[in-house]
Write a structure and sequence with these properties.
By secondary structure, the protein is an alpha/beta fold. It has a domain at 56-154. 27% of the residues lie in helices and 20% in strands. Helix 3 links the parallel strand 6 and strand 7 (136-139). The longest helix has 17 residues, at 25-41. The mean pLDDT is 77.
Length: 158
């Protein structure tokens, strides 16, 4: 047997038992900080709520311009920034007032979302209107299955 030491040192804890509910303010602060970090770290790309079956394409690029979305759905309806446009003349008027008539001189570009089931004639007419007004047009497409690249649009807000 081992001999017992002459003295026994006792360690007394200094913590006290606190009764009641815990303070939730630090947890709420951490939660909101994490929420802010996730919101700042993620990229929110505004996607139109109009369902469109986009064609596939393998070419992809990055563009930094002010964007105006023109959507052509499967029924042939035309939308300008999610607002219904009755005909191409009304679309031309909207493009003249909103895109070309900007005070800062930046024309921006049209992002054309056209459903695959539409006739190409309407797409060509929209592109002709944009060419007449000297506005760039980007046709939106899904990435091809074997493509790992993607198109990235960034806002140029000042």
């Amino acid at each position: 047997m081992t001999p017992k030491p002459d003295f026994v040192r006792r360690i007394r804890p200094r913590s006290k038992i606190i009764q009641g509910s815990p303070d939730l303010l630090p947890f709420i602060n951490v939660f909101f900080l994490l929420l802010i970090f996730f919101m700042m770290g993620s990229s929110f790309v505004p996607v139109s709520g109009i369902p469109v079956n986009l064609p596939e394409a393998s070419f992809v690029g990055t563009y930094s311009v002010k964007k105006y979305i023109v959507t052509l759905d499967k029924n042939g309806k035309i939308y300008f920034n999610d607002a219904v446009i009755d005909n191409l003349n009304q679309l031309k008027g909207k493009l003249l007032s909103d895109v070309v008539g900007t005070p800062d001189g930046e024309k921006g570009a049209i992002v054309l979302r056209a459903d695959m089931s539409n006739r190409f004639e309407t797409v060509a007419q929209i592109m002709a209107i944009a060419d007449e007004l000297k506005i760039n047009v980007f046709i939106l497409a899904r990435p091809a299955l074997n493509s790992s690249r993607q198109t990235i649009f960034t806002d140029t807000e000042k």
